[in-house]
């Protein structure tokens, strides 16, 4: 999405930001929001940067509730970080309100924009080359979950109801196949069959949750590698971003979604499936990081289901890409006509490989868990 200098300048003018607006540039590779980096000059001739982001209101239909969640969670994290002697300006996002005190600005066209602090001297990763980085991301998401353990979850709005209810996602998928509004179903019978054969999997976690065998926690729900900012110097994951889906959920959703994206040898949209491999080494690295940070707060049942959750979250994401493809690419941002189909195929390739390597994933998980005194 291209934005003109005039329109950005106008949006920026509604926010109470010190200094003079100089320039903007798109940043990041998210599939949902539009993110710009703003550069301001301050009175001392220095520069200050901010994040200006357009909330995707097709996906997040209640921006007021969404922003209340974000301010609640970031305020809570800030207080803990400050108490622990850490810098909240680097450890979490801060919302900059508009001149009227609102948490976002709505343009005449109905677009909703918000401003965050820009966390300097950090980088994001779109893929993993060094397992150590993935271990660091496991620590960061594990720590994030632990910090939010005492967050009053009943004050959180459900920004996307049934977000990781895979059984409900399966029903959406089946309806999209039946409706076949774009006439695309015939050509993707093999992908449709891949999902249909795994319907039973889609119920497993929601059934355990309903039966009270897995605890509901405050979770991030979108634990992609590129939703962590790593410190340039220490290489540690210091700030978790993209907080729109922080909601009550399962720890397994967060663990599984991280593995889905980061433990692959190829990009989420790699068209050459020969390059797409599930890496047990990366799985192990993340599990070490995640369990070292959050392991002592997890139940043995949660740990037991970690390997399965990786497969399930990958299946769910692939199914969502396929659903969107069948519905005419109305949800995820796409760069070319078959983009969602290409993405769905990488996810299913990973699912098939995880199924083959499930015993090894279980053994690796049990060995790491044993070291923190958990027997699974
Ligand atoms: P989306 O919902 O579209 O995924 P994100 O909130 O994840 O959008 O932002 C997209 C990218 O912008 C991130 O992956 C990261 O690279 C960068 N980014 C987001 N927030 C910040 C921030 N506060 N400081 C520095 N970079 C950021
Ligand atoms: C979206 O916003 P982003 O790019 O971090 C999506 C996730 C998917 C992911 C697939 C709100 O995440 O659920 O797993 O794409 N976010 C939303 O890459 O739907
Ligand atoms: Mg993101």
Top-tier CATH class of the largest domain: Alpha Beta
Number of helices: 12
Distance between the termini: 47 Å
Instruction: Give the helix proportion (percent range).
Output: 40-55%
Q: Count the strands? A: 11
* Domain tally: 2
**CATH fold node name of the largest domain:** Aminoglycoside 3'-phosphotransferase, Chain: A, domain 2
Poorly predicted tracts of residues: none
The proportion of strand residues reads: 5-15%
Q: Specify the CATH architecture of the largest domain.
A: Alpha-Beta Complex
The major pleated sheet works out as: 6 strands, antiparallel
The CATH superfamily of the largest domain is known as: Aminoglycoside phosphotransferase (APH), C-terminal lobe
Tell me the series of helices and strands, N- to C-terminal.
HEEEHHEEEEHHHHEEEEHHHHH
State Rg: 21 Å
**Bound molecule types:** adenosine-5'-diphosphate, 2-acetamido-2-deoxy-1-O-phosphono-alpha-D-glucopyranose, magnesium ion
Q: Please, what is the average pLDDT? A: 96
Shape: globular
Helix-strand category: alpha+beta
């Amino acid at each position: 999405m291209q934005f003109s200098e005039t329109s950005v300048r106008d949006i920026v003018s509604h926010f109470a930001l010190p200094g003079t607006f100089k320039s903007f540039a798109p940043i990041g590779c998210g599939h949902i929001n539009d993110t710009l980096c703003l550069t301001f000059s301050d009175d001392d001739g220095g520069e200050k940067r901010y994040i200006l982001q357009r909330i995707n209101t097709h996906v997040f239909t209640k921006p007021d509730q969404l922003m209340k969640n974000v301010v609640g969670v970031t305020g809570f994290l800030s207080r803990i970080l400050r108490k622990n002697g850490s810098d909240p300006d680097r450890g979490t996002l801060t919302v900059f309100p508009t001149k009227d005190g609102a948490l976002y600005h709505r343009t005449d066209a109905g677009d909703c924009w918000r401003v965050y602090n820009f966390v300097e001297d950090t980088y994001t990763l779109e893929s993993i080359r060094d397992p150590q980085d993935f271990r660091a991301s496991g620590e960061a998401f594990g720590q994030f979950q632990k910090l939010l353990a005492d967050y009053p979850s009943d004050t959180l709005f459900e920004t996307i109801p049934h977000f990781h209810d895979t059984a409900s996602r399966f029903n959406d998928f089946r309806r999209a196949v039946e409706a076949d509004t774009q006439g695309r179903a015939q050509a993707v019978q093999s992908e449709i069959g891949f999902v249909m054969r795994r319907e039973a999997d889609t119920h497993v976690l929601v059934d355990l949750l309903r039966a009270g065998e897995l605890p509901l926690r405050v979770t991030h729900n979108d634990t992609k590698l590129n939703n962590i900012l790593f410190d340039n110097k220490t290489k540690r994951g210091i700030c978790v971003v993209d907080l729109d889906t922080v909601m009550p959920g399962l720890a397994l959703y967060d663990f599984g979604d991280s593995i889905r994206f980061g433990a692959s040898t190829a990009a989420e949209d790699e068209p050459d499936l020969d390059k797409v491999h599930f890496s047990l080494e990366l799985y192990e690295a993340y599990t070490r990081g995640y369990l070292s940070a959050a392991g002592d707060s997890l139940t043995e049942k949660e740990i037991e289901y970690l390997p399965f959750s990786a497969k399930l979250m990958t299946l769910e994401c692939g199914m969502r890409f396929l659903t969107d493809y069948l519905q005419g690419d109305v949800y995820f941002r796409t760069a070319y006509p078959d983009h969602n189909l290409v993405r769905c195929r990488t996810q299913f390739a990973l699912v098939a490989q995880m199924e083959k390597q499930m015993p090894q994933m279980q053994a690796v998980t049990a060995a790491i868990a044993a070291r923190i005194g958990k027997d699974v």
